[in-house]
Amino acid sequence: MENASSPSPPQKPTTLLTFPKALATSSSKIKHVIVDFAIKAKSIGVDDPRRIVHSLKVALAITLVSMVYYLQPLYNGMGDAGMWAILTVVVVFEYTVGATLCKGMNRGLATLLAGALGIGAESFASLFGTTAKPILLGCLVFVLVGAATFSRFIPNIKRRYDYGVLIFILTFSLVSVSGYRVERIIELAHKRLSTILFGGATCIIISMCVCPVWAGEDLHQLIAENLEKLANFLEGFGGEYFRITEGDKPSLASYKSVLNSKATEESLANFAWWEVGHGKFLFRHPWKQYLMIGALTRQCAYHIEALNGYLDRKTEAPSEFQKTIKEPCMKMSSEVGKAMKELGLSIKLMMHPSGSASAMHMESCKKAKEELNTILQTVMVGEHDISETIPVIAVTSILVDIINRVETISEAIEELAKQAQFKKSKNTKLDKKEKPNFLNDGGPPDPANGGKNRESVAITVASLNKG
Amino acid sequence: MENASSPSPPQKPTTLLTFPKALATSSSKIKHVIVDFAIKAKSIGVDDPRRIVHSLKVALAITLVSMVYYLQPLYNGMGDAGMWAILTVVVVFEYTVGATLCKGMNRGLATLLAGALGIGAESFASLFGTTAKPILLGCLVFVLVGAATFSRFIPNIKRRYDYGVLIFILTFSLVSVSGYRVERIIELAHKRLSTILFGGATCIIISMCVCPVWAGEDLHQLIAENLEKLANFLEGFGGEYFRITEGDKPSLASYKSVLNSKATEESLANFAWWEVGHGKFLFRHPWKQYLMIGALTRQCAYHIEALNGYLDRKTEAPSEFQKTIKEPCMKMSSEVGKAMKELGLSIKLMMHPSGSASAMHMESCKKAKEELNTILQTVMVGEHDISETIPVIAVTSILVDIINRVETISEAIEELAKQAQFKKSKNTKLDKKEKPNFLNDGGPPDPANGGKNRESVAITVASLNKG
Questions:
Q1: Are B400 and B328 in contact (CB under 8 A)?
Q2: Half-sphere exposure of A151 toward its Cβ, with a 13 Å CA cutoff?
Q3: Which of A377, B63, B150, B161 lies 20 to 30 angstroms, CA to CA, from B88?
Q4: Which positions, given as ranges, span the membrane (chains A, B) (predicted)?
Q5: What is the pLDDT of residue B261?
Q6: Low-confidence residues of chain B, pLDDT below 50?
C-alpha cells in the first residue's frame, strides 16, 4: 500500500533520492487531489448545467454593477456609494428567481424603513443636547436591535422576512450611529438607497431574464419526481422480494431521498410565493397544496422504508408460504406502483388525474387484494413455520397500508387539479360528481361514498380503452 | 359570526354609526392581532429563555461596537471604517457559539485572502496602461466571481465555507474595483481589516463568555431527547393499541419531530466542529458518531410511524386474536421502550451504556418475543377472521423490527462511549471483551458473537441487583 504512487528504484542510493522522492510523492498527491476535485466539480456541473449558468449570471451582474466605478459619468453620480451596489448584488443574487426576489424585496423595504427610523432617532436624540445624545442613541439602538433579533425566532417572520430583519438591524444601527458624525445624512441615505435599488434591480432583471430558475417549477418537478421514485420502488419490490428479478437489478434505493425532502420542499414553496406568474404557473398558484401532497408522499415513503426492511432479511429461496401468496402480492405491489406513476405523470403534465390510468391500476390493485384475502383465508396459516409466516403477513399488511395512502395522495392531487385548474383529459366523460374514488375499504379516509365508485371507475376504464 | 366583536345598538340610526363602528371593528381587530402576536412571542421566549438572552447579547455587541463612533479617540483611529465593525457584528453574531465562530473565521480569512488577491489584481492590471486596466480588471472579476460562485455548489465547500466564499466574492470585487478609484488602497484595506477583526472579536468574545449556547451541547441533548421521544411512544403504544389506557392518555405524537430532525442534526454537528472544548466536551469530540446515532434513531422512527398507522384504524374493542397475544406484545413494546430510555439516559449522563439497565430490558424483551412466538405457534391463526388477524401480526412483526433497530442503536452508542471515553458505571464488572450484545437473532447485524451474550447479560443484570 505504501509508496504505491512512486516506487523508488532499488539499484540507486536512496539517501540522494529522499528530497526529489518526497517532492514527487507530494506533487503526485496534490495532482491527485486536484484531479479528484476537478472530476467532482465537473460532475456537479454535468448533473445540472443550470449551476454553471447561474455562476455566469452572478459574474455578469457583478461585472455590470462595477461599471459604476469604471465609467466616469456614473461615478460622478454615485461616487463611493457604488460599493453598496456591488455588496447588494453579492448578497441578494440567489439561485432561484423566488429567492432573489425575496432577498431583494426584503433588502429594499428594510433599508427604507430602517433608514427613515434611523434618521428619526438621530433627530429625536439631537433635541436633548450633545451630552445626552450618544447615551440616548445607544439606548435606542440597544432596545430596537434586541427586539428585532428576538423577532427572528418567531416562525412566521423567520420564514419570510428573516433577511429583512437582519438588514433592518444593520441599516438602523448604521444610520442612527453614523448620523452622530456625518453632516449631510439625508444626502448619504439617498445615495445609498439609490445604489442599493440599482444593485437589487440588476439582480432581479438578470435572474428573471437570463435562463431563469423558478422555484415554483422546481417544486412542481420535485413533487412529481418523488411520486415517481416511490412508484419505481413499488414496481420493483415484488420481483425483488420473491426473488424472480434476474440479470441487472434496478436499484430500489432512490426512494430514500424522499424521506428527507421536507426542508427542500418548504423552502421552494416559500420562494415560489414571491415569484410572479411564469410558464404554466400563474401568480398565486396553489403552492401550499404541493406541500400537502409532499407530506402525504413522505408518509408513504415511511411505510416503504418499513417495507424495505423486509428486503434486507430475505432468505435465499422463497418459503412455501411466500409461494402461495406470490401472485396477488406481486400484483398489488406493481399495480399500486403503476397507479402512483400515473399520478406523478398527471402532475408533471398538469392533467386532471381522473382522466389518467391510475384509477384502472387501483381497481386491479383492489382485485388482487381480495384475491390475497381469499388465499389467506383458505390456507391454514398455522400449518407453516410461524417465524417464516409473520414477516410475509406483515409485508402484505404494509402493502395494504400503502394502497390506502396512495388513495389519500390521489385525493390531494385532485384537489390540486381543481385549485390550479389542470386540463381535463380528452377521453374523460366524467363530470365532477362522478370522479372516481376507487379504493375505499379499511383505510382512514371517509367511507361514505363507497357505492358509486365502482361504476365511475368502470367508465374511466372503458373510456381509456385499455385492459 | 359577523360583527361579533362590535354589535351595533339597534335603537340608533346606523348611517351615523358607520365610521366609528368601522373604526371600532378594525381597532379591535388590530388589538386582537397584537395580543395574539404578544402571546406567541411570549411563548417563544418562555419555551427557551436562551432566545431572550441571545437577543440581549446581540444588542449589547452592537451597542459596544458603535462606541467607535461615539468616543473621540476611537473615532480618530478608525473613522468611517467603524461602519464595518457594526456590519460584521450584525452578520456574524449567530445563535450558537459554533455558528458564530464559523462565520467569524470564514469572514476574517476570506477578507484577508480576497483583499490580498484584489490588491494583486489591481497592481497587475495597472501594468497594462489606463485603457486596458478597466477591461482587464472586469475580466478578472468575471472569471474569479464565476468560479467562486460555482464552488458554492460543491457539497464540502457549501457545508463549511459557504459564507467564506460569499465574503471572498464581495471583498475581491470591492477591493479590485474600488482600487481603480481610491488612491491609498493599502491604508483602506488595513483600516477595513482591522475593524472587521474588531467586530468579529467582539462577537466571538460575547458569544463565548455571556451565557454561551454551544451547538455541540445542543446536539448532545437533541440526540438523547430523540431517543426519549421514541421510548415514550413505545412505552405507551401497548396500552393504546390494546385499549387499556384509561383517563388522561399521554400524547404519543411527540416522536414525529424525530422524522424530520436530519437537517437540524447536521447543521449542529457542523457548527460543533468549529467549537473549542467546553464543559464535558473536549475539542474534537466525536460529533460524527452523534450523526450516526441520529440516523439510526430516525430509521427507528420510520418504523414507529408505520406502527402508528395501526393505531389510527383500531376498532372499538380488541378482537379475540388481539386478546390472546396481548400480554407478550405489550411487554415487548414497553420493555424495548424502557431499554431505549436507558440508552438515551446513558448519553445524557455520558455514562457507558453497558452499565445501564438497558441490557436487562432488552433481555426481558427477548423473552416476551419467544413467548409470543410460542403463543402464535399454538393458536391456529386460520381460526380467526383473517382481516382482523393480518394487521395484528403486522404489528408484532414491526415491533420485532424495532427491537433489532434498537440493538443497532445500542451498538452505535457503545462506539460513541468508547470514542468519547464516557464514564463506566461503578457497579459494572465487565471488561471490554465481555460487553453485552443482548439480542441477536433474526436481525441484520452480524450474528457471529451469539454465544457469549447471554452470559454477559446475566452478569450485568446480576451486577445491577434489579428485577
A1: no
A2: 18
A3: B150
A4: 52-71, 83-102, 109-129, 135-154, 161-181
A5: 92
A6: 1-17, 428-467
